[in-house]
Structure formats: C-alpha cells, structure tokens
Design brief:
homodimer, alpha+beta, Jelly Rolls, three-stranded antiparallel sheet, disordered N terminus, DNA-binding
Chain lengths: 244, 244
Amino acid sequence: MTACDCPNFYIVFALNSLLKPHQILLQISKSLFLTMGKELLHQKFSHIFDKDLIDEIEKIGTISTFIKNDIIIDIDQPLQYIPLLLSGNIKILREDNDGNELLIYFLEAGETCTMSLTCCMGASRSKIRAVAEKDSSLIMIPVQNMHAWFHNNESWRNFILESYQTRFDEMLEAIDNLAFMKMDERLYKYLINKVKLHTSKTIIAKHQDIAEDLHTSRVVISRLLKQFENENKIKLSRNKIEVL
Amino acid sequence: MTACDCPNFYIVFALNSLLKPHQILLQISKSLFLTMGKELLHQKFSHIFDKDLIDEIEKIGTISTFIKNDIIIDIDQPLQYIPLLLSGNIKILREDNDGNELLIYFLEAGETCTMSLTCCMGASRSKIRAVAEKDSSLIMIPVQNMHAWFHNNESWRNFILESYQTRFDEMLEAIDNLAFMKMDERLYKYLINKVKLHTSKTIIAKHQDIAEDLHTSRVVISRLLKQFENENKIKLSRNKIEVL
DNA sequence: GAAGTTTTGTAATAAATGTTACTTATTAAG
DNA sequence: CTTAATAAGTAACATTTATTACAAAACTTC
C-alpha cells in the first residue's frame, strides 16, 4: 500500500528540511489537507481568477507546505513551477558572490513570485532565494500551463500583469531604501513592516537575523535597537522585539 | 497655411526644452522625417513584432524627438502613451522627496520603458524620470492600442513580457550595486557602462553629473576619478573622461 | 544549579563616505 | 586679451557604518 492509497497518514511539513525538536508533526488525512488547500485557493484567488481557471488550477496544481525558514527556491535553481501563495509569508532575498544577503520584499497570501515568472519565461534559473517567513502553503503550477493560460485566459493575464506591477513598485522601494535612507530609518521601516506582516506587535528574531536581511552587521543592529529602546519606540528582550 | 500642409519646414527638435546656442535646427522635409522614423521602426522592431503589428504601429504611433538632457517623462506625470525607442538612449532615474536622484538603468533603441507599462496598466502616474542621454527618437503608442494588442497579438504580448524580464534583471542589478558595492566599484561600473552605451572610449560629462546619477557628492567622484587616473584606468580632462 | 551555549551590550577603533571651504585650471564672453 | 564663469583638485574635518574584542545576560542541558 502506498501513501496515496491510505486515507489517513502523516503529512510531514517541509520534507525538504530537517525537522527541529519543536516542530510538531500533524496527523491529518490527505483529503482534509487537500480540502484545506482548495479552500484557501478559493478564498485567496476566486476574486482574481475566473471560475474555469480556478477549477483548472485545482486540478493541475500541487500543494506544497513549508515551515518557517525553509528555503522554497534557491539561487540558480531551475524553475519548472509557478508558485501561488495560499497561506503564510515568504521573503525574497538576493545574495552576492561573497554570500551577503539582502531582503528585497515579502510575499503574502494571494500573491505569486514574479521572479519565478521571469525565470520561467526565459527558461532561466532563479536569481533570488525564497524563504518561508512563517509556515506557508503554496500551490505549484507547471510552466506549460502558465504559458497556455497567458495566451487564452484574460484573468490569468491580468493577474500576471498586476503581479509585475506590484513587484516593480516593491523593487523601486527597495532601491529607494538603499539609495536614500540611513540604516536607522531602514531598520525602523523593517520593524514596522514585520509588525504589519505578522499582525502582531511582537517580532520574534535575533539581531543577527535582522542584520542579514538588511545586509549589515549584528553590532550595528544591536546599537540602533538599543537607541530605539531609549527613545521608547520599542522594548527589547532576548529573541524578541516589541514595537510600541 | 499650417505647418502640416507645407512639404518643407523646420522640425524643431525638442519642442519642450529651451534650445542652447550649440543646438542646430535641421531643415528637413516632414515626409523625410517620417520616412526616417518608419525606417528605424522596421529596423529595430521588425524581428520583434509581426508584419501586421508593425503596420499598425506605423499608422497609429506618433514620432517624437528629444535632444540630449530633455526630460521625456517626469515623476508624477500621467502616462497616456507607451514609448518605443527608435534611436538614441534614455536614462531612467528615481528621485526622493529631497530631490536626490539615482540612475536606475539605461534604455537602448528597440526597447520600451517598462515603467510606463506598469503605469498605464494601473492608470497611475510615472514613478520615474526619463531623460534623453543622447538625442533620441521615440514612437508613442496610445494606451488603448497597447491594451488591445496585449489581448490579441502574440508578438506584442511576448515583447511586453520580455521587456519586463529585462527590466527586472536591471532592477536587481541596481539593487546589487547599491547593497553590495562600494562607491569606487559603482563608479567604475558606471564608466564602463557609459562607454559601452556610446560605443566610444570618451565620456563627455561633468563630475557633478556623475555624482547625481550615483547619488553622491561631486567631491567624492572627483577624488575617486583622480585615484583611477593614478591607477592608469582613465585619463581626465575638463568635461571629459577617457577610459583606457 | 553548574556548566556550557547563545544572544545581547558596549567600547574602542578603522574605514568609507559626506561636507565645507578654498584653490587652481579651463573655457566662454565681452 | 581680460574678465567672468564654470569645472576640477585638494585638504581638513564630520558623520556614518563596519570591525574587533570582550563582558554580561539569558537561556539550555545535564
């Protein structure tokens, strides 16, 4: 009997990463898992895609799940699927030759990664790294379908164009941040952004992690965070930042 | 008799800018002017668009010319036309609230400004400034046509997608430059880029202009250029940099 | 709860970039 | 040719960010 024939089996979240002790395996039925995914697909995308397309995505797409910090797509990895984000958040990072990282933007549920669009179009490899910011679920669409839909489905075409536009704006914002803002402003904006994204005043992160996202050093971040605390903008504790 | 009825009249380059003494008015016939534009359209775009589309562009598009340093599109300006670059080069700049500029990328003949695509799609205003880097000619397509073609012409659709991809890559490169490179590297890359673009080893520019493109101060550029000269990478004179 | 590990705090210093102020060179205009 | 305007050179200093080094605090593990 294969896993597929069994109505109840363990869905192991994030098969492509090592599980850490605190990461609990959930015992759910495969059908429940798929139902949840489809539910999310309808919820997040039914106002974007027409009925027929939703049905086709449901039929063709495969659902993948990732836990926090999983690498979803890495740099230079060839892309055969377009991901639609059903739940969670994904951060899109750039890396230089020396391994320095920089956060470019976040993806939220109901969005796609435009980078993967450009890669799939040009049959090239990923230029960015996508990392799960929270536990996340995706529905993956094979490139062939994506191409076909682009030529025969208007709602898909509009979705792609709107995605490009959103991402373009975010890239411009990333450029503005780097070119015109000092590190303290960049950090504060980063904190506010995180708070919005997680709809919680409390950010769970180490100074080191933040330093990597902003491509600076841990000491710089600690220094600035302490300064923010003195200005009563935030409250610091180990692994935790509360934005006031 | 209006200008249009006259077979020979002065085409004033860059009607939207003040002419400087050295800028010569060319006396050419209107029909020659249009013929040249159409010739360029065929030359630069016939391998991109199908025959029918070229014909339609020829019929619908209006040709505009700009001289060096003309502002073609400014920030917050509403966009009703998509420009296709027939000849010359255009630089795309970003500006912050304090008026600081930053060069994002250059456009070459045969390309379009993807920014204007995103703006036209969303019926929003320009987020960037486009400045003629050389004397340039454009063919302008009204937004309505652009929309229609997107839905019924595959070569146009592919052109748009490829434009997005090119521009995306260039935005990523701009981000890399800002995030990972020091000013000396950024400046050297800028010089090399200019040399390639103008297919000439000699760059005609003031240190102040370069400083603005890279969003730094004139003194910093002068210092670094002098350093490059000492390293025999370039040769400096007033308003001129020769790359060796 | 002792020992080890991880995270944060902080000072001292270095390097990169930005600013000010002034001089010198080059070109343009009369 | 002289004067004025513009561009470039340069020194001194300020600010921002990066680096190094180490100590203190907060958690983990046994």
